[in-house]
Specification:
heterodimer, A: mainly alpha, ABC transporter involved in vitamin B12 uptake, BtuC, B: 408 residues, alpha/beta
Chain lengths: 297, 408
Amino acid sequence: MNYFFQLVISGIVVGSIYALSGLGFVLIYKSSRVLNIAHGQIIAAGAFITYALTVWVDIPIYISFPMSMVLTFFLAMSVERVFLRRLIGEPIISVIMVTIGLMSILDGLIYLTPFGSENFSFPPFLPTTPISVAGVSVSWTQMVGVVITFTLIGAFSWFFKKSTVGISMRAVSDDQMASMSIGISVPRVFGLAWATAGLSAAAAGGIIGNITGLNFETLHAFGIIVFPVVILGGLDSILGAVVAGIIMGLVQQFASGYLDGNWGLSGTGEVMPYIILLVILLFKPHGLFGIHEIERV
Amino acid sequence: MKKKSMIGWMSLLVAVTMLTLPVQSLAGKVYKLGLSLAITGPTSDAGNPYSKGVEDYFNFVNDTKILGDDKIECTIRDDQYNNDVTKRNFEDFISQGIVFYLNYSTGSTLALKKDFEEEKMAVIPASFHAGNLIDSHYIFLPIASYSTQAIGLGEYIVKNHKGGTPKVAMFIHPSAFGRGPVEDLQKAVAAGLKMEIVEVVEHGKDLDNTAMLQRLLSKGVQYVISQTVQSPVATMLKDASGLGLVAKSFGEAGKITFLGCHYTGGNDLIALAGASAENFYWTTSYIVTNEPSPGATAQLELAKKYNRDEKAANSHNYTNGMMVAQVATEVIKRAKAAGKEITKVTLYEELQAMNGDKAFSPGTTVGPVTYSKTDHTGVDTLQLYVVGGGVFKSVGTPFIPVFAEKIK
């Protein structure tokens, strides 16, 4: 029974990190209907900035971590300003193609730094002995990761529901022309969407980097790994990202835990989330919490 | 007047030609080589220092006139771990007239096997996949294959395990690179290597290995042999270390001893896993720079000469790149000494003649490089290392796995 509960806890931990990683996709899509293919590179950039501030500038990690979130906030905002602002009003496919180009540019820039082809790890700052209750363990890094994830997700949910800026962002997502007609600055909203996505990506990068070590390939792969999570949850739903993240985390852990090593199976944790995704999308094509828009002609 | 001027110009042209001819013949020959690898993109953490090792050694050969007035011109191209780009690079190198080719990944080596056969081009890849040698006459592994490495680790487990039959799990990359040694280790077990392979785990981008480690422990697994790259091993070691599952001494009861093949270890593993890498056992045919040896001194001096940083200088991938460049240089040197013209044919012949009293000791490996018509594996010898105090230290002396030969 302990094993079962261990899988549940591990699934929730992994799933919440997926949710945080996927949040950036949702934030941008929610306000601009754009899929940011370069999200993984921003996750990696956030992790590297945290490392550089912690190790090279010698700033304690509890300060360097929020600092890197702020820096990535502005970095993502600049990216939007330079590359995407002039595409407002252009077909979505053009904007997505630009994000693919952006991915290559960010890749190239990171390869110019030592982070592109070297490995690093954060200096230990949390107890190494995991938290264990009744034989179920979770590491301090993961625990802190979960707390940060839920704090950020709570904050973003509040922001979109209650704050004026958040409501403006939702309005832009709903109808750009109508939003402009009531005085909302669409370019400013887009910039903010990218900036907040950058902020969440830096948080995700910092957490993943602490768990896996800092390897560029591993970090930017999370931009793709969380893709089924946001599709399942619904591309424009923060709650969807959380629920889908946890579902995916649990499915992955249970598949690895109960299927791998039996009947000659291996690597099922990688495949099962996609099978579940396909099955759910058959019944809910817009994802679990995605908005189904009906257009009247 | 016109005629006089014409004669003047002609005389000048003849004089210039006469003067430059001896200079040209003194300049020596240029031997073209090619290397395509991932300097950026996936696995560039290995490819980048590897390319530096190759580049520095060939520069050293030219600067110190190891080949006299002749020079090696090795074009190094980044393929970003993309087989299509590797193929394009190789074809381009062929059109430039290369006499020797250095390749990189398992995937591209398998994909280009037929091209190497068609071009009759001797190739040394950075991949030690045993499958590279199947149906191939032109691929030469620089060191013992991943299969031999895994079997070597298995033999060490069997030799040093206390109690009954040791229970082993394999932790592998989900690719031909990772799966390669599984079947061969199973064959070794069938041939009498007294251990039980309980489970083969194909990893993904795992953020948590707690459940997997607990499952292995519940099945009585005491040893995990990894055949993958450093990052997933580092995550597993961090989880195992947090749970207190890492054996402090080899085969400690109730704990797991972690071991791995060439690309799981080296300083990159320590950089990723930090203190969790302690007591990780690793095998390769290369020397390490933190242990004094003539090869280590030569490597560090080479890296210093060409202004490489500490990380590159001490990387086992730099050693790897340097070693293949040493082998390529040696075959050119031998062909020259034998008075042969340097072509892909003569270099292929020299490579296959590298055995017996013609075995080559580059100093960067723990044993000699030997090739023959029937043996395309360079260094057969392996060395076991263990992480202690943040560095890899030798355990015992170099050895050749017995079962690797038995299952052939």
